[in-house]
Amino acid sequence: MPASKPQQPVQPEHYLDRILNPRSILIVGASKDPVKRGNRAIQSLVSDHYAGTIIPINPREKEILGFPCYPSIAEAPGELDLAVVCTAAHTVKAVIEECGRRKVKGAILLAAGFSEIGEQGRILEDEVVALARQHGVRLIGPNTNGMFSARLGCNAWGLPDIPRGPLGLLSNSANCVTSIVMQARTHGFMGISTMLSVGNQADIEFHEYLECLGEDPGVSAVMLYLEGFKDAAAFREVARRTTQKKPVVMYVAGRTSEGKRAAKSHSGSLAGAYAINRGALRQSGVTVVERLYHLYPVAEALSLFPPMRGRRVAVVSEGGGPLTVAADALVEQGLVLAQLSQETQARIHAVVPNATAIDNPVDAGGGTDPRAEYYGPIVRAILEDPAIDAVLIVGLLGGYADRFGEQAAPAEHAVCAELGAMMREHGKPVIVQSHYSDLKTQSLRILREAGVPFQRHVEVAVQCLACAADASAARARNAQPAVPAVVQGPAPAAMRTIEAALAAGRDLLETEARDLLQCYGIAMPEYRLLRSAGDAAAAAAHFGDRRLAMKVVSADILHKSEAQGVLLGLQGADALREGWARIAANAAAYRPGSRIEGMLVTPMAPHGTEFIIGVTDDPQHGPVMLFGLGGVFVEVIGDVVFRALPLAPADALDMVGSLRHASVLDGVRGAPPVDRAALADLLVRLSRIRELHPQIAEIDLNPVIAHAGGQAVVDARIVLHRNVPTQA
Questions:
Q1: What is the pLDDT, as a whole number, of residue 482?
Q2: How many angstroms separate the Cα of 464 from the Cα of each of 230, 475, 509, 705?
Q3: Among 609, 659, 687, 717, which has the highest number of CB atoms less than 10 A from its own CB?
């Protein structure tokens, strides 16, 4: 007998699968009135050819729209997966009680009137959730427009003509879902597999939906519109796993203070600081877009592209204008117009001898009427160049038959089919910007069926490539094996310092902060603490002729500069004694009665590039780290990035390289290049300190000066929580 094939392990069904893809649906509050949701819910299920069982619930009706109607959930037949609750908020508790007794797996709560309206609604929402958990009923919403899933044709949303395809869509906003569905319908090539308006997330939260869609083989990418998390840490963990398998593309609302206020009033969500959200999500592999209309095209492109190996892009067109626009857009998005090899240029020159530009961008027009057949051999030559990671075609492709007559159609059709095959053969993304995109020409249909995305606007096509590069880099970064912590356990001296400060009801003095950092391998400039002006001579003798900085050390003065408690460039005992007197007088004027522990004296740091580094607590993401350009850069350009803690070494290196003006790190105006690895090590150590000492509320290092000899922490401040145990 032939050997039997080994059986493949069966993927266990996700616990939400029978709720998002129900085999039976109760319509609670079903109605014969075609205006009411209890009628429209049945209509939409019928219109989308729902493959499961529809069970209307209404004690006053025998049938609705041809379906037998039951007086209560208790009398409904068979196994029950999902209840669509179309009744008002005050009825929901009784409905959930019935669902629980009948072992209904899940319920969609369409009604508003819960936590989004205030305290009274929050109390009702909490009571409903408690009942649901008591009975094992999972809840979608409340305050939601519903759900759509294509697998069984479950349109529990009510929006008609939802295009079906492999994209998942999760949103705080039903209106934004409608916008994206219309975009998909207009584009016509990639539709929706599952979409949800998550409502108040009273029970099922974003991360649970994402996990379910991440495990669904019918979903190629997940789109999200976010106003706020209930459990940001859980979402980041699920997103890190999911993005190893498929793209997760998100628009985060609330970039401005006005946007944050609107988001909170709309859904009752807490919209966290945008920069923190963006950094923490990027860290988890999520692709964050800054325009809502980019959400769909980026998700589509990332579903179609092979992984992008780097940021080097070649641009091909038949004319100069689009090439210039594309070059500008690529640079603005942090992509690289890499130089083509001499061999590649020679191959292009053989195709178009009269071409005016063949080094990148490539002008395929050749100074004559463009010919579509040029694109095949040109793009193949570029894709075979190891210096190129992706190809962007801009201009007329897709419209040659419209522009030059039907005699151009066969060549264009052949090229469009060939581009998809070449993209897969070489494993490098190809995208087309076509002036004819809105016309959906036959050539563009052939192109898209071959697996190559196309867009109307250069900027959108470039955004797709930039996101592809970011997503591939994140996938590689998050796939790296865990490395041992740079510090294994809490330092006893650091614990004693924190315990003493907490017992005294204060934060750490700067001297204590410096000593604590040094306990964890962070190199700190040496210092002397002058307890009185009489210590000036000994300090001056110790430091010799070095120029010194003097700073007040006081638990009552948090911001030393505001109190004029800092003097720079002091030399010698007399200058230190005079400095003591000046700072003491300034401190007394700033805050009378302030306790002065002494004056910290330390050598002036060498000139270099200034950075600000900090750790703080975010209401959504918990402890987060800030890294940015310091000194005047903080005031002028605000170039800072955030990541959630704990921080892996790969996260820290990515953080250092993510500044908008990261070229500063390579040295400008004669400054030496910054040691990125040393900076990353500092970030990882600070992350570990916060992990080992949760009673630390804030760490503020500003500035940290990177110079030719390394880096110097010029000022250190550590603020403590008063209600966190000292044992890590």
A1: 83
A2: 29, 16, 49, 37
A3: 687
Helix axes 649-657, 676-692, angle to 10 degrees: 130
> What is the predicted pLDDT for the residue at 558?
83
CA 525 to chain centre: 37
By DSSP bridging, strand 454-455 and strand 548-553 are unpaired
CATH code for the domain defined by 305-478: 3.40.50.261
List the CATH code of the domain at 526-604. 3.30.1490.20
DSSP 565: -
pLDDT at site 367:
54
The type of residue at 82 is L
Please identify, in words, the CATH class of the domain defined by 485-524+606-728: alpha beta
CA distance 85 to 28: 5
Gap between the Cα atoms of 412 and 682, Å rounded: 55
* pTM, to two decimals: 0.90
* Structure confidence at residue 364 (pLDDT): 80
pLDDT at 696: 96
| pLDDT at residue 264 in the model | 41
Q: What integer pLDDT is reported at residue 58 of this predicted model?
A: 97
Helix, strand, coil % in the chain, rounded to nearest 5: 40, 20, 40
Dump strand ranges (E) for 263-389: 287-289, 312-317, 336-337, 362-363
Strands 622-629 and 609-618: antiparallel
Confidence (pLDDT) at 322: 87
Q: Please say whether the beta carbons of 694 and 726 come within 8 A.
A: no
pLDDT of residue 76: 97
Residue tagged 């170039």 (tokens): 639
Q: How far apart are CA 212 and CA 273, in angstroms?
A: 27
Residue 564: what pLDDT? 94
Q: Cα separations (Å) of 180 from 174, 184, 439, 468, 614? A: 10, 6, 20, 20, 38
Q: How far apart are CA 37 and CA 97, in angstroms?
A: 22
Mean pLDDT by 10-residue block, N- to C-terminus, for the chain (728 residues)?
50 90 97 95 96 97 96 96 97 97 97 94 96 97 95 94 96 92 94 95 97 97 93 96 97 69 40 80 96 96 97 90 91 94 93 82 73 92 97 94 90 95 97 95 96 97 98 96 86 96 95 96 94 94 95 91 92 95 94 93 90 92 92 70 95 92 76 87 96 95 85 93 67
pLDDT reported for residue 194: 97
Which DSSP helix (H) or strand (E) runs through 302?
Answer: helix 295-304
Q: Give CA–CA dist 99/95, Å, rounded.
A: 6
Q: How far apart are CA 75 and CA 677, in angstroms?
A: 67
**Domain ranges within the chain, ordered by starting residue:** 17-140, 161-288, 305-478, 485-524+606-728, 526-604
**Cis peptide leading into residue 142 (ω within 30°):** yes
| Phi and psi based region of residue 78 (left: phi greater than 0; alpha: psi -120 to 50; beta: remaining) | left
pLDDT of residue 263: 45
Give the whole-angstrom CA distance, residue 159 versus residue 152. Answer: 16
CA distance 373 to 535: 84
Count of helix runs (H) and strand runs (E) in the chain: 24, 30
CATH 3.40.50.720 corresponds to the domain 17-140? yes
> What count of residues does the chain have?
728
CA distances (Å), origin 528, targets 525, 539, 543, 563: 10, 7, 9, 21
17-140 with 485-524+606-728: one CATH topology?
Answer: no
**Closest C-alpha to 28, from 41, 46, 43:** 41
What's the half-sphere exposure (Cβ side, CA atoms, 13 Å) at 405?
Answer: 2
> Under CATH, domain 161-288 is a member of which superfamily?
Succinyl-CoA synthetase domains (3.40.50.261)
